[in-house]
Amino acid sequence: MKALVYTDVEMLTYMDRPLPDPQTGEALVRVMASGICGSDMHAYLGHDARRPFPLTLGHEAAGVISGGPEDGRRVTINPLVACQTCEFCRSKRENLCPNRQIISMQPREGAFAEYVAMPLRNLITVPDHVPLAHAALSEPIACGWHAVRLGKSVLGGDMSHLRCAVIGGGAIGVGAALALAAQGARDITVVEPNELRRSTLADVAGFEVCAPDEAAMPEEGSVDFVIDGVGFAATRATCSALARTGGVIAHIGLGEATGGLDVRRMTLQEITFIGTYTYTAADFAATAAAIFDGRLGALDWIEERPLCDGHAAFRDIRAGAVAAPKVILTPDPS
């Protein structure tokens, strides 16, 4: 099969790779849509020790089961494979499983390929009316859904009266904003410095979109719930400043490991900081259901490119030349 393989720092090679060999309880899925994630970009730049080359990246995927009794079933893929037996799995917090694996990290090759093998329990059926490129958004949006659910539990459940802000207008940030709206928030601002991307986001779902230096930027100390979808020191500093007394910061982004938080202010103002990692199986299923029934909007903010042009897509994303929050790689033209 063909695959887009990370072969060196800032190098992706479109090449032949062995067809995956599904194990007991797994299915072979023909990948029809696979999104480029920020973590794929980190690996591409040589910043992710968990993803050494050579490796097939990609973990935001949807496709069609190939072969076996469920041949032809349209599915979206939960890429996180948990052990099912540890204390975290038993308590339905599979994302914290100490033995978790995720495709695009060894030993599981990723979905920038024609096929991927996945456990059947990780596959959710996609209705015929839903494009598989939209179904592939289940993974990035589930990260925001999980963060919103955790923050909502601290803030008392009803978010209709809360002021919310999301830092970052990429797919994680947009997904978090859509998850906020789907879970009851009404006052949502997305902060995005890239002018090209802001122009794309303006009509996504009715939430406010602004640059950090614009008048629409929330005042310091005024936001009940802040979500960092980027994860750099500068964005954490922004979160620390924006959060009101007794507010919540949910941190999703993995841009860099340290710096930014005003711990003294967070302590004196009793601001809750929640580190969030991926999603539970229930979060993923809830996100997929919200996509299927239209609660997350038209999802028309994606750009599709063929897999064979994946390296060019990475270069364009790094250069800030892509307006869409998400680039989806699709099968090559026949």
UniProtKB/TrEMBL annotation:
Task: Give the EC number(s) listed in the UniProt record.
Answer: 1.1.1.401
Instruction: Read off the InterPro entries from this record.
Output: ADH-like_C, ADH-like_N, GroES-like_sf, NAD(P)-bd_dom_sf, Zn_alcohol_dh
Going by the entry's taxonomy, the superkingdom of the source organism is recorded as Bacteria
- Write out the entry's keywords from A to Z: Oxidoreductase
GO MF term set = oxidoreductase activity
Give the coiled coil ranges. none
Gene3D superfamilies, alphabetically? Answer: Medium-chain alcohol dehydrogenases, catalytic domain (3.90.180.10), NAD(P)-binding Rossmann-like Domain (3.40.50.720)
| Limits of the Alcohol dehydrogenase-like C-terminal domain | 171-288
Q: Tell me where in this chain the Alcohol dehydrogenase-like N-terminal domain is found.
A: 24-128
Check the UniProt entry and state the signal peptide residues, or none: none
Residue ranges annotated as transmembrane are: none
What name has this protein been given in UniProt? 2-dehydro-3-deoxy-L-rhamnonate dehydrogenase (NAD(+))
Species in which this protein is naturally found: Roseobacter fucihabitans
Q: What is the lineage of its organism?
A: Bacteria, Pseudomonadati, Pseudomonadota, Alphaproteobacteria, Rhodobacterales
